[in-house]
Design brief:
- It is an enzyme of class 2 (transferase).
- This is Succinyl-CoA:3-ketoacid coenzyme A transferase subunit A.
- One of its GO terms (molecular function) is succinyl-CoA:3-oxo-acid CoA-transferase activity.
- Its EC number is 2.8.3.5.
- The chain is α/β, with parallel strands linked by helices.
- The chain has helices at about 10, 35-40, 60-65, 80-90, 100-110, 175-180; strands at about 20-25, 45-50, 70-75, 95, 115-120, 135, 140-145, 150-160, 165, 180-195, 210-215.
- The strands form two sheets. Strands 1, 2, 3, 4, 8, 9, 10 and 11 form an eight-stranded mixed beta sheet that branches. The chain has a three-stranded antiparallel beta sheet with strand order 5-7-6.
């Protein structure tokens, strides 16, 4: 039951060039900072990354983009990263834009072992091109397939040695849906406690969905867009 590994380096063992990786987070909120830094250090190439967006130019997945380590991004939002925009418009980066709710459900479906589902999102748009459509009760739906990923990497607030996880506030975002949605799930946490110390009623993700867990360090927790107003 002890799934603890020493650090990000040990957690990321087995990740190779050409693999498909899910990464939790929304903007810069709740991203697996330590694991991303490790992937940058390993200089792994040709990755397909599934994430809501790609961070900013000098942080988060933006660091992997800087090193040309990402071949394809599957995202729902790409507006805060100039390098992402440059690579996409130049044809250097393959981009698959997905409605945000569909992205979340494609993760959840993979987690639950559901191969595909129908959603009205995207019907009649480029999102539906080449996909099966079907009518239910007079409304048209698009069939979306669940994601297939080699690794899912998430960030949680607290975890225990068995991989049970608790997320905090909006840092929860896509992280719970990605747990168990890859062949191997890596969780990095701010606080790692022995088994039995977490209140079972507060656990968001049971350890059955997690294969490796480690305590992260030196979290910057940057704010993607700081918006302020003058004091009155």
């Amino acid at each position: 039951m002890n799934k603890v590994v020493a650090n990000a380096s040990e957690a990321c063992e087995g990740i190779e060039s050409g693999m498909t990786i899910m990464l939790g987070g929304f903007g810069l909120c709740g991203i697996p900072e330590n694991s991303i830094s490790e992937l940058v250090k390993k200089e792994i190439k040709d990755l397909t990354c599934i994430s809501n967006n790609a961070g900013v130019d000098d942080f988060g997945l933006g660091l992997l983009l800087q090193g040309k380590q990402i071949k394809k991004m599957i995202s729902s939002y790409v507006g805060e990263n100039d390098e992402f925009e440059r690579q996409m418009l130049s044809g250097e980066l393959d981009v698959e834009l997905t409605p945000q709710g569909t992205l979340a459900e494609k993760c959840r479906a993979a987690q639950a072992g559901i191969p595909a589902f129908y959603t009205p999102a995207g019907y009649g748009t480029e999102v539906a091109e080449g996909k099966e459509t079907r009518e239910f009760n007079g409304k048209m739906y698009v069939m979306e397939k669940a994601f297939e990923a080699d690794f899912a990497i998430v960030k949680a607030w607290k975890g225990d040695h068995a991989g049970n996880l608790i997320f905090k506030g909006t840092a929860r975002n896509f992280n719970p849906n990605m747990c168990g949605a890859g062949k191997i799930t890596i969780a990095e946490v701010e606080e790692l406690v022995p088994l039995g110390e977490l209140d079972p009623n507060e656990i968001h993700i049971p350890g059955i969905f997690v294969q490796r867990i480690f305590k992260g360090t030196n979290y910057e927790k940057r704010i993607e867009q700081r918006t302020t107003r003058p004091r009155s």
